[in-house]
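Narrative of accomplishments. A recurring question from our advisory board has been how the design workflow behaves on a single, concrete structure rather than in aggregate. To address it, we present the structure tokens for one chain from the evaluation set, followed by the sequence designed for it. No filtering or post-editing was applied between the two.
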């Protein structure tokens, strides 16, 4: 975990699969993930060391489907046979309350790490465990939380995992470039929702996102500019008529009628229906 803290910076928070498999400890290779399984339980250790969620595109599986329980805590499924040694490793991690690492796929062979995390409940009937992302969630009793505690836990899950994963998946899909102005400084990029996440249709899927620099993200959210369903940018009429400095002229006005730069993978491109719905909201605000 100390190595991960040094390796994964705010500017570069993701880690490659080959780095995790080739991790060196005391001069020897000591993989932090299993080469084939989702749970890493090293030989000679009784508890699991890490869990892994494989990257899947939007069209393969709905993002985070069935991953959050009624208590707001994340769930992780057992590996095959409930008595498999890796699942025993999760049970031991729960009994001893030792911390684990969770590697969440944001692209093929690329992971966003979350650590430390804890197993706070083992649900044998459902063949899964409940996972806490921080100390606050550790003290919530799985299955017996109040509505206020559940909402609080859901907010932690959204802020600590769903939002960072969404951001990294969108930025990776757009190859670390603003879809409007092509700015390539990762630290200045956001993952903008087409339909806001507060909306029931605002799912954390790449097809509901755009990689935008901070100025264009803010302009998009404030309906200063919109995106037509054919991926063409439209700047609000009153903004086009304003006279101001170079940021207005080059940063906003010159975006009018420019086409978005889209991801290479068709599955990662903006959903047409969501773009159309958001564009109508933009037109209504003009």
């Amino acid at each position: 975990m100390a190595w991960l803290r040094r390796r994964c910076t705010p500017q570069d928070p993701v880690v490659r699969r080959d780095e995790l498999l080739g991790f060196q400890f005391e001069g020897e290779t000591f993989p932090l993930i299993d080469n084939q399984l989702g749970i890493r339980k090293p030989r000679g250790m009784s508890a699991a060391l890490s869990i892994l969620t494989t990257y899947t595109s939007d069209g393969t599986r709905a993002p985070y489907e069935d991953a959050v329980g009624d208590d707001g805590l994340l769930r992780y499924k057992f590996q095959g046979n409930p008595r498999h040694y890796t699942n025993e490793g999760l049970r031991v991690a729960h009994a001893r309350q030792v911390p684990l690492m969770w590697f969440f796929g944001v692209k093929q062979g690329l992971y966003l790490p979350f650590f430390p995390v804890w197993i706070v409940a083992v649900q044998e009937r459902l063949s899964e465990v409940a996972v806490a992302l921080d100390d606050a969630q550790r003290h919530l009793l799985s299955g017996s939380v109040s509505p206020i505690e559940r909402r609080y836990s859901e907010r932690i899950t959204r802020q600590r995992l769903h939002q960072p994963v969404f951001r990294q998946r969108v930025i990776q899909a757009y190859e670390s470039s603003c879809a409007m102005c092509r700015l390539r400084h990762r630290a200045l990029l956001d993952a903008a929702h087409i339909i806001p996440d507060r909306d029931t249709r605002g799912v954390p899927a790449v097809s509901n996102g755009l990689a935008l620099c901070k100025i264009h993200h803010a302009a998009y959210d404030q309906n200063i500019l919109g995106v037509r369903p054919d991926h063409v940018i439209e700047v609000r009429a009153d903004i086009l008529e304003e006279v101001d400095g170079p940021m207005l002229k080059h940063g906003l006005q010159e975006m009018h009628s420019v086409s978005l730069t889209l991801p290479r993978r068709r599955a990662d491109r903006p959903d047409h229906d969501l773009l159309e719905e958001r564009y109508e909201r933009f037109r209504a605000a003009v």
